[in-house]
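Researcher: Structure prediction, please.
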Amino acid sequence: MKYAVFTVSMPEYAPEAAAAFLKEAGYEGVEWRLVPGKPYDENAAPAYWTNNRCELHEEDVLANAEKIGKLCREYGLAMPSLGAYAGCGAPERAKLAIEAAARLGAPCVRIGCPGYDPKRGYRAVYEEGVEQYAKVEQLAKEYGVRACIETHPGNITPSASAAYRFVSNFDSRYVGVIYDAGNMVNEGYENFQMGLEILGEYLAHVHIKNERHQETVYPYGGYQHWKADACEMWKGEVDTLAVLRALKSVGYDGWLSFEDFYTGMTTEEKLRGNLAFMRELEAQL
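Model: Predicted structure follows.
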């Protein structure tokens, strides 16, 4: 397998520092986060979702694509995917993300599918999403990249089978799925091998992290319940060795990209430890 890091996981690193660290730590790739530009508060600590320094911005990504490409070549890092936050319901942003992936040389770009809306119901959301994603497919074909949805809580594709139902409407050369077993601790769990077999040729990219349920309290009534939260790669509910075996069983030997939101250690400790852990597991295959 080849290992990359989705840069949302490295909020305190500016892009060049991130590239230098990833190369030194033994990673082979980087999955850049692409978001709308926003003011950075120098007085606030960097975090995953606010003041994240390790990202590209939609406003200038095309102008900076050559510089980012040169940076990656300098440190010997491939770009397996572009982690955009555009959805199929925002066609201009989706087009920009697809063009940016093509300029950067990333074969895949994440373009989201709709979120589930209980007021509208699954079928209405699904049908609208398929109609919108057909336009994304055409753009992906035009630019020669692969637009990917993700198995993700809250959208209409939290599981592999739900993702397959959605993407099976499209050509697998231009539309694929990012498989994320960590997300499926929260919603959408299915047997790993069965899910990957269902995805078949639509499996395009893999995110890795781990989560486990923590006891918490509902905001009303004081009732106890359990909520999934990020944890160390080696302590969660995802049997990562089983994921690797399932990937091997379906012939996947592509990229594994860490999208890790655990905060109990430094970013450096986490990313070094994650890679060492995965290499240990690979030795058991």
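Model: Residues 238 and 244 are 11 Å apart (CA to CA).
Researcher: Thanks, that helps.
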